[in-house]
């Protein structure tokens, strides 16, 4: 079924309209790629899905975005809970400056988890899902910043997965990485989509065609095409 439904989403930075009425819904357990030229509104739209734009001054958003049946912009929505259900991975790896273990434990501890066995278990599972376990299992108490960029990004993916969100958003997650780390992130996304719903912003068409089930193409703040990826990348 549909997990996120957005209707007629407009977003203004001050007077400037960056999204011109986006109607887009996302299917559970699929990977959807958001593509389009730089500045077309991909990141802006992605940030609407977990209310990250609320942090930017002078932003106005109209329209509706529902996560299952809940309007995420309704008054009284708990944004911390929302961000647990809709996690985000950024372009630049941004682990917290403490141990790998505590990075991945972070959301679970915030949620009140105290049981060491539960924490150990979730941390191992998440690091395995993010294809980084073998590289960090003997260094769980090392500072996450001591690892390479590609490793840090996979730790960040594990940090998001640890709280078992419904939806994982990723904003150009591989554009700062080496090819091997990029491939590992792609494999991770293909593996986790059976459990999660994945929405990825990418400027890399090959990446979109390799991993996504559906592709949405944005241009100047408009959704201009949205279809199954296999139909969008057919050679004429
Ligand atoms: P993309 O992710 O497709 O590169 P963005 O969503 O980053 O596009 O940007 C869409 C448009 O909104 C661009 O014109 C960009 O300059 C503008 N924009 C993005 N963020 C802000 C902001 N915080 N304040 C003002 N304008 C912004
Ligand atoms: P991307 O293309 O990956 O979306 P950008 O390099 O366009 O990222 O933007 C990086 C950051 O700067 C984003 O957080 C975005 O919101 C902000 N930004 C982009 N354009 C503007 C702008 N015109 N005014 C203010 N902030 C902006």
From TrEMBL:
Keyword annotations of the record: ATP-binding, Nucleotide-binding, Phosphate transport, Transport
Pfam families: ABC_tran (PF00005)
InterPro entries: AAA+_ATPase, ABC_transporter-like_ATP-bd, ABC_transporter-like_CS, P-loop_NTPase, PstB-like
PROSITE patterns attached to this UniProt entry: ABC_TRANSPORTER_1, ABC_TRANSPORTER_2
MF-aspect GO terms: ATP binding
Domain (ABC transporter) ranges: 4-236
PANTHER family, A to Z: ABC TRANSPORTER I FAMILY MEMBER 17 (PTHR43423:SF1)
Official protein name in the record: Phosphate import ATP-binding protein PstB
Gene: pstB_2
């Amino acid at each position: 079924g549909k997990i996120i439904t957005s209707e007629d989403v407009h977003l203004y930075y001050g007077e400037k309209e960056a999204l011109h009425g986006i109607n887009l819904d996302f299917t559970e357990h699929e990977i959807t790629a958001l593509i389009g030229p730089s500045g077309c509104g991909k990141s802006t739209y992605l940030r609407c899905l977990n209310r990250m734009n609320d942090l930017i001054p002078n932003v106005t958003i109209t329209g509706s975005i529902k996560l299952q049946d809940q309007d995420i912009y309704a008054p009284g929505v708990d944004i911390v809970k929302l961000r647990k259900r809709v996690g985000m991975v950024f372009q630049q790896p941004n682990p917290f400056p403490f141990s790998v273990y505590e990075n991945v434990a972070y959301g679970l501890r915030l949620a009140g988890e105290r049981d060491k066995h539960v924490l150990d278990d979730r941390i191992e599972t998440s690091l395995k899902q993010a294809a980084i376990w073998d590289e960090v299992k003997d260094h769980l108490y090392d500072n996450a910043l001591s690892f390479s960029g590609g490793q840090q990004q996979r730790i960040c993916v594990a940090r998001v997965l640890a709280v078992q969100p419904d939806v994982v958003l990723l904003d150009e997650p591989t554009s700062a990485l080496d090819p091997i780390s990029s491939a590992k992130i792609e494999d991770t996304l293909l593996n986790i989509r059976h459990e999660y719903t994945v929405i990825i912003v990418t400027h890399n068409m090959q990446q979109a065609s390799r991993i996504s089930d559906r592709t949405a193409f944005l241009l100047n703040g408009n959704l201009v095409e949205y279809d199954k990826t296999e139909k969008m990348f057919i050679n004429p």
